[in-house]
Structure formats: C-alpha cells, structure tokens
C-alpha cells in the first residue's frame, strides 16, 4: 500500500520531502522490507 501511494505521488510530480522519505523508509524497515528501503535511499 505505501509503495503504491509513493508511486502515485512520484508520478504526479509532487515534491517529496525528507519527512515523507523518512516515514516511507521507516515503514518499509518495520515491515521487513530492508532491501526495498535501501533502494529509496540512493
């Protein structure tokens, strides 16, 4: 779900800030998706 929201926001060209990325990466890590979170860091 979170990745779908991220993709929709990215596609609509919204300016994503550090708070958004922090929440996304934190949620992915807590859900056990460490490798996916790493992809969004670089």
From TrEMBL:
Pfam families in the cross-refs: PPR_1
Keywords: Repeat
Source domain of life: Eukaryota
Record keyword Repeat present: yes
InterPro entries (UniProt xref): PPR_rpt, TPR-like_helical_dom_sf
UniProt xrefs under NCBIfam families: PPR
Name of the molecule in the record: Pentatricopeptide repeat-containing protein
Organism: Gossypium arboreum (Tree cotton)
